[in-house]
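Quick illustration, no need to memorize.
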Amino acid sequence: MTSPMYTFAVPVFKQMLMALQAELAQASTHASTHSIEPDALLQARLYPDMFALAKQVQIAADFARGVSARLAGVEAPIQEGQEKSFADLDVLLAQTVSFLDGLSASQFEGSESKEIILRPGTPKEKRLTGQTYLANYGLPQFFFHITTAYAILRHNGLAIGKRDYMGVY
């Protein structure tokens, strides 16, 4: 039997990251076809105090890697967050999906009761079970950044919709 923790993490992260990757490819084409400087999209934000598109993508990838790694009990590959172009973001998402592909369901066995400590040793330290970490922290954080990236692209004229957001499932 496949671990439900694996099922609710890795395939979901992969689906949404690959959908985002396709949206970014469309955005790159859109910028090119409409003579829009790519940075105008990559640095676009919904509101001045929010992160720009590129940062939203980086954070979504970080959550997919970090959450999965913690639950699987492995080290997450570290990304520097230096992606500056659509091509860079494409590589980041491909590397993240590749990392997820390297995880097995057996690595997630028992992770629902595993203790996950957020911000260890700080006044903001939180201790969560793996199940709470995934369901109430990891997935909501991930979806926030995936959705915000989608909204930035849509707001900036990209002709994408729910099918693009959802990807292949």
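Residues 30 and 157 are 9 Å apart (CA to CA).
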